[in-house]
Design goal:
mainly alpha, 25 helices
Length: 464
């Protein structure tokens, strides 16, 4: 009865969170097994979680970076690094999204923030609107895969797995996806005879390489110093001071913004802070850059960003709260057990289950927002995955990637609608523009689904 109530409310056009909470309340009232206030208690208990404290701070950090002019710096850095290649701005689009993914944590923020700059620049350089929209949509999916990631935090809370392990699990898959997207850009450039969009400049390219080397070498140097016996906290503080001095002297374009994921992952793996505390550190870093260092963020804008963050956080938390009571009711009424028995009676092969799960998650991702989809699917699919020996961290990565691909499709794909508005294209033309880019995305999905070592190697190596 519960699942039919939920489907009926969803079909009536009621928002998914209200449909989940409402169907649970109606079922409890009709059955009479529990008092109605059990719904409220369970919903409050569902969001009374320490890892969920990271949600508002990651949202705030992404909003601060997006409103502090950081996107222009990232774009100029990517332009200097790969803009001279054939199909240059297509490669810039992908590289820029890789960098921005380390700050925003959501696909929509990437599409709306960096995507606005990229699509305009590509159209100004003669690229078709369809190609600009397609590559922007594909690269936006990197936002939740490369840490930090809001969907990973929600999944970790629902699946009771380590947020840090999920963050590390997303690094190599993110690189793989970016490489496949750049290969696709190169294919279109070769097919259409495109050249570079800027002239190759040794000094500009060299400076971009130096910035990349600084970002890569900084944590390695600190690690070597700490291993030699230095105090970790003091070493990090001195290293940050030297980094700011170097940024002022050499006028780097994007070293400090790119350091966001480095500081976050480094702090978690070395035990300086937990993933939740890392979200607070990311906010502090974003505030330092926007308000004090670059001075591109006014206090008036800061207040607006905070209010936007409160609104977004309230929406996410309400979905999680509603999903907690709905998932609990699904378990209590035996729905999840029945589904598990049916699937296990149908197949006991992990590869076939993953294939069916992928098809289901791709379908659900076209209709539901990722947070809602995660909170509904985890109680149903994860127990089956565990019984078949699928690692929960690996399964979480596969689930999030499926749902990100779903964001590119009608009828509910938010990235699709954002890019249609930015590019001033119809939804139909935007959908057709995205279709060729499903090839690298689905290719990545197949590799990551059936080669779990790609996602699990890094967290296992670092003991998470």
């Amino acid at each position: 009865m519960l699942k039919f109530l939920f489907l009926f409310l969803m079909a009536s056009g009621i928002p998914v969170a209200i449909a989940m909470a409402g169907s649970s309340l109606i079922y409890i009232l009709v059955s009479g097994d529990l008092p109605g206030f059990a719904v409220v208690h369970r919903m409050i208990g569902g969001i009374d979680s320490f890892p969920l404290l990271a949600v508002p701070f990651f949202i705030l950090a992404g909003n601060l970076m997006n409103n502090a002019g950081i996107t222009n710096r990232i774009y100029n850095f990517a332009l200097a690094l790969v803009g001279w290649l054939k199909g240059g701005l297509g490669h810039v689009n992908v590289v820029g999204s890789v960098v921005f993914a380390g700050m925003s944590g959501t696909a929509i923020a990437d599409a709306a923030g960096l995507g606005t700059i990229e699509i305009k620049a590509m159209k100004d350089h003669g690229y078709s609107s369809e190609f600009a929209v397609g590559v922007t949509a594909a690269s936006a999916t990197l936002g939740p895969i490369i840490p930090p990631s809001l969907p990973f935090v929600i999944y970790a809370m629902m699946a009771n797995v380590s947020v840090g392990a999920l963050f590390l699990a997303g690094l190599l898959p993110g690189v793989l996806m970016a490489v496949l997207m750049m290969v696709t850009v190169a294919y279109f450039a070769h097919k259409n005879g495109w050249g570079g969009d800027i002239k190759f400049s040794g000094s500009r390219f060299g400076k971009a390489l130096i910035e990349t080397g600084v970002v890569a070498g900084w944590p390695l140097a600190l690690y070597a110093i700490v291993q030699a016996g230095a105090q970790p906290q003091l070493t990090v503080l001195v290293g940050l001071a030297l980094l700011f001095i170097a940024d002022r002297v050499f006028r780097f374009q994007a070293v400090l913004p790119i350091m966001t994921p480095v500081l976050l992952i480094g702090g978690m793996t070395t035990g300086i802070f937990t993933p939740t505390e890392g979200a607070i550190a990311a906010c502090a870093w974003a505030m330092l850059l926007g308000l004090a260092w670059y001075r591109t963020l006014s206090w008036k804008m800061f207040v607006k960003v905070c209010l936007d963050t409160v609104e977004t956080t309230a929406t996410v938390m309400f979905i999680v709260a509603a999903a907690s009571i709905f998932g609990w009711m699904l378990t209590a009424t035996g729905v999840t057990t029945a589904i598990a028995e049916w699937v296990l009676g149908f197949t006991k092969d992990a590869w076939l289950f993953l294939l069916l799960a992928n098809l289901l998650m791709l379908f659900v991702g076209c209709f539901l927002e990722p947070t809602a989809a995660i909170t509904i699917l985890v109680p149903i699919l994860l127990p089956i995955a565990l019984k078949l020996g699928v690692d929960p961290v690996h399964f979480g990565l596969v689930m999030v990637l499926n749902l990100m691909i779903g964001l590119l499709h009608p009828p509910m794909g938010m990235v699709l609608f954002v890019l249609a508005r930015v590019a001033k294209l119809s939804v139909e033309r935007t959908t057709m523009a995205i279709l060729p880019w499903l090839v690298p995305l689905l290719g990545s999905l197949v590799v990551l689904t059936y080669l779990p070592q790609v996602s699990l190697w890094l967290p296992r190596t670092l003991g998470l």
